[in-house]
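Lab notebook page, bench 4
Experiment: in silico fold of construct C2
Operator: M.H.
Input chain length: 384 residues
Purpose: comparison with the prior construct
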Amino acid sequence: MADFKKIILSETVFDYLKPTIFFMRLFGLAPFSYERVRKYYVIERSTKYTIYSFVLASILGSITILGVIYDATSDRSLRMKTQNQKYIVITDIGIVVWSVLLGVVISQYKLEQVLNVLRCIQKVSTVLKEPKNKLKKEKNVALTIGLSVYFILILIFGFDIYGWITRCKSAEERTRYFKYYSAYYILYLVVISQEISYCNFTYYVKNRIIVLNAALLKEIKREPDIFLHKRASSKGKIDPLVSPKLLIGTEGDVLENYILKSAKYSARNELTPLTIRNFMTAHAEIYNAVNSINACFGYSLLFILISCLLHLVITPFFLITGSQSNPLFTALQATWILVHFGRLLIIVEPTHRCLEENEKTNPLIVYLLSKVQDKEVKNEVSKA
């Protein structure tokens, strides 16, 4: 697969992808810039955003690590009262820090794959002639889901901060908590942004597969165009009243003409070589996009999935070993367990839906090609 260091997107497709691009750049996961040129956008690697990504991850990671160290070595620790709790908290927060650092570093080396996904989406949308209003509707769905996840997570952060602050015994301890752990919550947003980016890209690919399947199914169900044959008169001349390419519509109309005029007819399939090429191009670009998504997010998602599973072990342990007499603390840990399950669903559910839709494509292709009669079309298929 070729590397794409610079791509051009149409205004419509760029607007469709803009929410994902915005949040990826905001959290240091997409070190590229874009420039509008008439009705198109040129996207390429940006040194400025590359520096921004490393600086953001380094500052947030350093503040979080130092905060955990200070809290762990303090005589009045805020979150680590026992030795076991120290191990748990360090593991819990360390997983998030490493997830961010890994995601930011990988994003620098996998930028070409991200650009290739954007290019593939542009190509498929162009080939299949997707309407602008459909893309706008899909954009609103992706934006709504992303903003909802961020909003819910911020509410949970507020609940978490409130839960820990109520356990502080003085204003000085509350100040220390904000000082030590405020960067940690921002890092968690970066991790969630990685998952949302993967979810959105998978959503985009799934929608392209849906459009391709709809186009294939429409071609399969399309009734062949019916044409009258030339009919010779009794004197051996061609009857001028009957055009050799007179379209007479549906099979019912054909039957009526056949009975009343004794006209011969034939069905002509309009599955042209261009249509076949468009289907082949769309299918190839979708496959290309899937490979690029796997290459770009593979290692990061593997680490995030492992971290989710570890959190699902650590959080119940915290719940069991924590204060059983504090309903607020119990509710807080139960909420985090639901959050970790939700994070798994953000990754697993879109992937499942995409694979489920993809399974419908090959049978449609085989059925459509089985109807091909035209030699030129067959030759086009054989070249694939």
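Observations: Residues 227-234, 238-265 have pLDDT under 50 and may be disordered. Residues 171-221 form the longest helix (51 residues).
Next step: discuss at group meeting.
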